[in-house]
Records
---
Amino acid sequence: MTRRYRAPDARARGFTLLEVLIALIIAGIALATVFRAASENINATGAAARYQEALSRARSHLDGSSANLIFGEQEGDDGGGFHWRVMVRPLDSTGKKDSAGRAVPATDSLVVTLCAVTVWINWREGTHGRVVRLDSERLLISAPS
């Protein structure tokens, strides 16, 4: 029994150089897209962490300013690249007002003043400045003198 040699089928041949190059280009584009998405994800996670830290610092300053309500603005460096500013202003009061509009306690009663408290936390992130702002209203109770 003799065997005949059959020519290889056209479908059984390997890939051409052009097909291999196109496949490599497509794989390169896909990898670049995946790496870019991963890099943006890392940057977004870092920015979210900074916003969370700024919000925590703003809440702390808001709580601290409630203990010592001093009318006007105060500011300072909070460390870690954060800068804070607190503004306290009177909105309304139950007492008599002096010429500057501030409540003056009577000799026999408490004066309750409603104050607006605003806290800003600023920081730099790359070339951009970022800010978190919290607003609240607090009561200031003045005892008779």
---
Amino acid sequence: MLRHRALLAAVCGAAIPAALFAFSAGPPPGSSGVPAAGNNQAENTCALCHSDSEGGQAGKLNPDALGKIELRGVPAKYVPGHSYPLEIHVSHPEAQRWGFQLTAVAGDDLHGAGDFAPLPNDKTTQKVVGLVAARNYIEHGATGKATGVGQKGQFGWKFTWIAPTGNEGKVSFYGVFNASNGDGSNGGDKIYAPVTGVLASSEPGK
């Protein structure tokens, strides 16, 4: 197993402040920052509606270098159809509420690669299905516990990735995460996106 580190972005994907409270229960699919590929447009991030300023206007990605994520458990080589336990660990010294969304893609059009599932009887994560390129997503759940309310400095989630049943070639993981101040508004939140693009990747194996 490999460990991967990167800077990430907060989850949102819509610029409508009235919908912000709904996103605390989980962002809409297509908010993980996958770039444009083939006929598929680039996904949004929550910089459209969350901001590191108190005004809550459209924010800037990566307003500082303090937000970090570690995706643990991604295999160097995946076996088609095999399940892999993964864990996301996020940190920011000023945050006290958290959110994320992650997807796995492959091919020239970055279509969905494999599937995700929460752990049994675990409500801290949830799967959502997107309408673009057959992408599946895993994200934080709807409860306060799932977003680590009051948890200062760091937080994490565990879930399962099910590799594609066939050889899809290289699989790339894209993810976004929110380091929030926890005041219930869309202002004062730190929005990050992967600096190098791909969060993690896995090659086909046997």
---
Amino acid sequence: MSSFLLSAALVSAAFLGVQFFQFAQGDGPFVTGLRVLPWTATPVIVAPLAGLLSDRVGRRPVMVLGLLLQGLGLLWLSAVARVGVAYPALMVPLVVAGVGVSMALPTTATAAVSAVAPRDMGKASGVNGTLQRFGTVFGVSLVSIVFAANGHLGSPASYAAGFAPAMATSGLLSLVGAVTALGTPGRRAAMAAETRPASQLAS
């Protein structure tokens, strides 16, 4: 469920964010790409560190913290984004959300495949990937409904009016994902499963 909600929050937020820079701020595609770099480039630095951290403290706390940070970053973004807002006001919440997803995305995938016997890891990976795809569709559909109920593409102001509640919805999806991540097996249980003989895992 955490993979589903993580993807729902991430992709719906990206869907909204790039349009905000173009429709509400008047930026072109190239400038928009540069402006979202604090969000999208963060995994290059943070994801490897998150992997090392999860090996030390377990996957659950890293997943929960990552989803919380992503949710808080998206809620913060929804609160400050308005027509004509200075870019530095948007950059900090983008970084917070980027750090969050950089922690949650690889850890969630690892938790999914390590929860089953080695012979079932391929199936677990496939199920996780499918949940992510369904989450993407669900998230974009949900925020589109929220956006249409509050704004439209007619003007920068009308786009910003729909953007704020729609982006807040993405943030809430991530926070719900943090709650579901609490159900991930703790570090001791995960280590016990990984060291258990294959005959016991299959039973």
---
Amino acid sequence: MAFNRGWGVGMAIALIPLIFPTAGLRADTGRRCQFDPTLGRPNPLGMRAYITLTETGGDTIVEFEQFPSLVEGGEVPATLAVKRVMTFYGWGLTATRQLLLDQPRYYSELLGYQDTEGFGSINDLLTCSPY
């Protein structure tokens, strides 16, 4: 049986990702959206909380974080911080933002409480950029 060079080279190229799994991966070129104070409007969540949306690998991660607060009245000094993370698998950044606008239940679950203003008040103050 004769050896087909074209097939052999093609097969070798096809096997490279199996032998060296990271060889064919592109760099992650995600996007991140955050509250932008330069817009001149106050953060609807207050000065001690924020929401960040990060698109990476075809998924979008939405984080709600409250800065640490002092726990009053204890014998030992302590602070309490809150961070809630919601991941939308297979949803890009734009689609996730629209989902949070259209279905308020997701936004309420992220915050851990019912927000009467909804995600729209935050969405309008987000600036997105590659990271």
